[in-house]
Every structure is written in C-alpha cells, then in structure tokens.
Amino acid sequence: MTDLTRIGSNVLSGMPLDRAAHRRVDAAWLKASFDDPSTRYIAIWRQNAVVRLGPEPRPVVHYRETLDGLLDGSAEPTLLGVEIEDGTAGAAHFVVDLSHVEAGALLARSPGGEMMDLRELVQIVPGPDSALIAYARGLTYWHQRHRFCGACGSPAAALEAGHQRRCSNEDCGAVHFPRTDTAVITLVHDGDECLLCRQSRWPPGMHSTLAGFLEPGESLEECVAREIEEESGIRVGDVRYHSSQPWPFPGTLMVGFMAQALSREIAVDETELEYAHWYKRRDLLGLRDSDEFRLPGRYSISRRLIEDWLAGRIPP
Ligand SMILES: [Zn+2]
Question: How far is the CA of 280 from the centre of ligand 1 (A)?
C-alpha cells in the first residue's frame, strides 16, 4: 500500500530511478542499453500501464525479449533512468508507447497482468512504482501531443533519448522540452473551519479544496489569491507553501498551499463550482464516506492538505 506518512513527499513523487540525464546524449551507452537483455521496459498503452495482480500488485516490467515484435513501428523508447543498486548504476529503464498495438497483444506478453489507469493503480501498488508509472505516462503523453513543431507546424522528432523534440524544418529547428503545467491547490482555513467546494462533474459526494492553473506573469501566491476569490468570493492572506505533487492527468504539477481567509461570505462562480461551504473540523473528523459526502482519494495532495489541517499541521 502507498506510504502516505513520508514527511514532505506526496504520492506520485519519489520516483526511484536515477534519471541519469548525462546518459541521454551518450549514443554508445544508449545503443548498448537497447541491446542489453536485462534492460527494463515500461509499456504504456493509451495512458494505461499493465499491473500484475495478486497479494502484492506491481506494474509489469518487460524486457526486449518479452516485447519482441511489438516495438516495431513505435516511437523510439524514452530513457527513464537507471536503477540504483548499492550505490552503483544498475539496469536501464525505458518507457515505450505501445498505443498502436491491440491491448490483447500486450496483455499476452504480461501473464497475470491487467490494463490499469494510474488513478486505479496508484491505490494498490507501492508508492515508488506509482511514481515511476506517473513519470513514464507523463513523458509518453507529451510525445503523443507534440508530434509537430508548435512554432512552424513541421514534424518534430525525439532526441536526447526522448527528453526533447526538435523541429525537422532546418529553417526553424526549434527544440521543445517536456512541459508541465503548474496548478495551485489551496486549503483555505479560518479558525476551526475550512473551505471545501464541489464541482458537478466530480463523483457523487466528492468535496475538495480549491485549485486552478497558474497564468503567465503571475506568482504562485497571486494565483492562490486570485483563484480562491474568483471561484468562492473569499479573500485570503498569509498564503503558506505546503508541498507539491506531480499530477500527470495529463501533465500538471500541483503546488499545495494553506491560506488564512480574510473574509467569510461565499459567492461561488457557478461556471466553476456547484457550491462551496465552510466545514467545521469536528464535523469533518466524524464523517464517513458516503454518496452525500466524501473527501478526495488518499493519494491526492488535496486529501493531504485536508488531513494535515484536520490534525493541526499548518506550515510555519
Ligand atoms: Zn519548427
């Protein structure tokens, strides 16, 4: 089960490999790694990964041999990093996008495996495994969505072992890097109450903290204040950083904050929220999940913000 107790880290962070960025430009090492039978491949199929079920579910790891015949026609594998074994570099890990094959063809190479979305697998596999799949999924998604140069529209090709894409038009030659969108997520509090909201598209009963995307020319603190006021009408001050979480759904970094409310009257933006309410700590502590009220999944930073506030853990 995912370890939620590690201080300062959130689920989906803590990717266990050495990213070994210097190897991305080491053509000889990359070629030797592709040919090495001990090299590990994580297969991503349309944003899903294969998980081997059982008493201790783990993502399925492939080898060149087990993917024989499936790698043809796919983009070149992207280097994730190398395993760290007793302080020395171990097996290389690559992610390969197999979205073009039939799901059954991949599952046939993965005995006992089942195709699973990250939101599902994060709840059953060890934390470092989910972080690895989150990383693999994020890179794969970026490649899928950046086949063409954003500057001139010409095809772009992967380089640096899949960590850049360069435009094929010599007059342009723009180099593109994997992008991460920044979003802030904030628990707003006032004494023994906190502000939670609900969006109509969420599952029944789901309530959460407020979140929104950072805009150009905006600091994170300004973004927190703007998003909270736009969505709920509440003004905040004393915005304090809590922690961050990679959120590859599809390519976001969630930056978590707690903020003191400076006003009380709620006026929701109904295009964003169904409603927002103040909730008392003692009421939240006594609640059990139901279709009328539930909190976000335990793997999410929003849940961690809520749980930390409930426990009185507010950043100094
Ligand atoms: Zn271009």
Answer: 54
